[in-house]
Amino acid sequence: MYILKMNGEKIGEAAERFEPVQHGWKSGVYMVQSVDCIQEYVPQEGEDETGLPFESIHPDKEEPTGPGMVTVIEFKMCFTSPERIAIYALRDAGDPVMTDWLSILDDPRCTGVDLGLESTRSGVEYLVDKVAGFTESRANSVLKGEMI
Fold first, then answer.
1. Residue 52 covered by a domain
2. 59: how many CB neighbours lie within 10 A of its CB?
């Protein structure tokens, strides 16, 4: 469901997305005569924040299989707590590599990490020069899937 708000107050709702039109917003036959509105999506039962049915984005949420495959949480557990904090601090400081890498790991559609994938390897190796105490030895442990 899409909700239009003006000054924090709900002024309209519709099942379809509101589209901006001259002097307002329109969704199907619903029209709001104001350009000072913001649109917000409110997920309904069975949907996620994108508005798509949960099943279409998370089909069965199967565990990853195959050699070198771990779940996202297992991958994150290969890092120590201080390492994870430092990694997210890099992202929060605007590091473009960590912003990109974590956007993939934190995407709800991501169910597994392929430890042999070049992008996984390069992301982990990138941390050697960026995270205090994260050595090549630690990177190799992470890439073997060794949880701490």
1. no
2. 10
6-14 CB contacts, 8 Å cutoff, 24+ apart: 6/34, 6/36, 6/37, 6/38, 7/36, 11/37, 12/37
Please give the residue range of the domain that contains residue 11.
Answer: 2-42
Tally Cβ neighbours within 10 Å of residue 55.
Answer: 12
Q: Does 111 map to a domain?
A: yes
pTM of this prediction?
0.57
pLDDT score, position 109: 85
Alpha-helical (H) ranges within 43-117 are: 54-57, 72-76, 81-92, 96-105
Residues 33 and 79 in one domain: no
* Dist CA 148 CA 133 (whole Å): 15
Place of tokens 């949960």: 54
Which element (helix H / strand E) includes 114?
strand 112-114
Q: What is the pLDDT of residues 61-119, one digit of tens each?
A: 555 555 589 999 999 999 999 999 999 999 999 999 999 999 999 988 888 999 999 99
Q: Could you give the number of structural domains in the chain?
A: 2
- The answer to whether residue 117 is domain-embedded is yes
